[in-house]
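User: I'm curious whether this sequence folds into something compact or stays loose and floppy. Could you predict its structure so I can see for myself?
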Amino acid sequence: MDRFDTHSVLTSSETAALLQVHPSTVKRWCSEGLLDSERTEGGHRRVHLDDAVAFSKAQGIQTVLSPFSPYEPHVWAALRAAEDEGSFLRLHTLALGWVLQGENRRVEHLYTALARSESVSFCSFCDHGIRGLMMRVGQAWADGRLPIGEEHLLSQTMIDVLLRLRQESLDEGPDPYAEDASRVAVVGTLGGNHHHLGALCVRLLLERMGWKVYYLGPNVPADDFGRFQKSRDADLVCISLGPDHTMGDVSRTLTLLRSLYDRSRPYRLVLGGSLLGSASDDLLSGPFEGVALINSCAELSTELASAAPEAPEVS
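Assistant: Here's the prediction. I'll summarize afterward.
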């Protein structure tokens, strides 16, 4: 595990955010000698992270760092890098270290904290936070440093984090499943692709954009997407391809969907996967309202926002 700066120093506002109080409360605690602090040459108050953590434990205050003892400085540094710099390297290194040690519970807490951060967009969380870690874990497996079972366990951990995040979003925001839901999507992974983290991210993204989503999950036969679109009169079909799929799979999928297309029930088709960068215009032609090739949540958000300007874009 890489070494992290364990001498983090917090401003009054950062300390207040960590302890979930108003900055004036932090200043009062410092003035009363309850919380150790120092002054900069300019007179600004600074609190060492170690002191803030010790204070929270003594006062029984639960913070975002509470589940990580004795790694609080490491987690703080990783979250700050992601939030302030958009850099996920420290977070991936920390999480990978825990994965290699079999401490997936810590990884779950770490990614839950990242997902709840107001400074990290949902698309960045998926595109850089989750995908970046899974790529490093996949490399660790390829190098023989990690059993395949541990990789699968981490995938399930990420699924658990996403489902918890989804429930929180549905509880707090507008209900995309209300009776008058105007936009309907079908989402899943193509037959042969059993990895559905990316598709699950797409599901959550669409719900945040106000779509009612029928989530079919992994390993869905191509023709089932077409039939399900008809039965639900969906406006959008999103299909995630896996790394083992070929352009032949793409061609067969599009042929099936063209044969099932009902012009009285038009829809837009989105195909996701790195393979699709080599798809030709002729291959992607057809009766659909549009065909988009995407390889990230950010691309999908931008694509749908441009296709329907009145719809909110989720970054």
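Summary: The two ends are 31 Å apart (CA to CA). The longest helix spans residues 148-172.
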